[in-house]
Amino acid sequence: MNAIIGVAIVFVCVFGGFMIERGNLSLLIQPVEFLIIGGAAIGALIISSPVKLIKALGKSLKNVISPKHFDSKKYIEVLTLLYEIFNKMRKEGIIAVEAHVEEPMKSDIFKRYPEILKNKRTLDFICDSIKTLLSIEITPYEFDNLLEVDIAANTEEQSHPYHRLAKTADALPGLGIVAAVLGVVLTMGKINEPPEVLGHSIGAALVGTFLGVLLCYGFVGPLATLLEHHIKEEEAYYHVIRIALVSFVARSVPQIAVEFARRAIPESERPSFSELEKIIKGKK
To answer: For the residues 141-167, what does the mean pLDDT come to?
Structure first.
């Protein structure tokens, strides 16, 4: 929703300001300039991106309309789930959670957290990490490195669409100049025309530069920045899970492991100690 509001504000302020100064809006409506700049940008994006990445970019842009919100509720949910798993492992032994992580869809514990069951990456991250503990003996240091490698690999993959969009944004002013130069070439072919004809032709050429800069700094660039923000939010979420898991493996009791993780949550979304403690007490 914020993205839509931002786009509306850019349109209103840029084109509204132009009209307030008695500018003729029809002069900015140059479909051919849009075709040259937009077509060249899309073509360049296709040249530089494999099919898999283009699909990922489409998915990322779709998520801009309905993004994942890593809010306090989401953090409380995952920490409560981890507390239940840790508590069971501590009381009954690590083998007690084997069936739960092997088939989480059938697990009584995981069924209490439907949002996590819907998120395949979160589910795999938690279950695969615990399966590692079930299969081999591993030091907390090695386990921490393993989880960091997992998070880094996934974050890098998630970042590819953002990088492509950012590069496309950087190219737009240059493509605007290409459109402007083509307009000047056409104008030179009309050198014998009256001044009003030449003026209209030069104005149309300059619209190309205007559109390239506006699309870069008013739309595509901010959109790329928004994608980067979503990636960083998701990365922070998985680091919170990592800290809880590593703390438990390092012999912290479930309450302390979850508290370590709570302290890693960004302050704007961090639940209070009392809020989380109250929920955890209900799970004992």
So the answer is: 93
Query: How would you class 63 by CB atoms within 10 Å of its CB: exposed for 0-12, middle for 13-18, buried for 19 or more?
Result: middle
- The answer to whether residue 46 is domain-embedded is yes
Q: How do residues 226-284 score in pLDDT, each as one tens digit?
A: 999 999 999 999 999 999 999 999 989 999 999 999 999 999 899 998 888 888 876 65
Amino acid at 283: K
CB 241 within 8 A of CB 113: no
Distance CA 188, CA 181 (A): 11
Q: How many domains does the chain have?
A: 1
142-178 in b/e form (b: 16+ CB < 10 A) is ebbebbeebbeebeeebbbbbbbbbebbebbbebbeb
Neighbours of 122 (CB within 10 A): 21
Q: How many CA atoms lie within 13 A of 58 on its CB side?
A: 9
Q: How is residue 259 written in tokens?
A: 């508290």
For residue 226, what are the domain limits? 31-54+69-281
Whether residue 8 is contained in a domain is answered as no
Cα–Cα dist 31/113, whole Å: 51
The full length of the chain comes to 284
Determine contact, residues 37/211, Cβ cutoff 8 Å: yes
Neighbour-count burial of 32, counting CB atoms closer than 10 A to its CB (0-12 exposed, 13-18 middle, 19+ buried): middle
Average pLDDT over residues 142-146: 95
Any idea what the Cα angle at residue 280 is, between residues 275 and 281, rounded to 5°? 100
Residue 148 within a domain: yes
pLDDT at 220: 92
Would residue 62 count as lying in a domain?
A: no
Mean of pLDDT values over 52-77: 84
Does residue 138 contact residue 146 with C-beta atoms inside 8 Å? yes
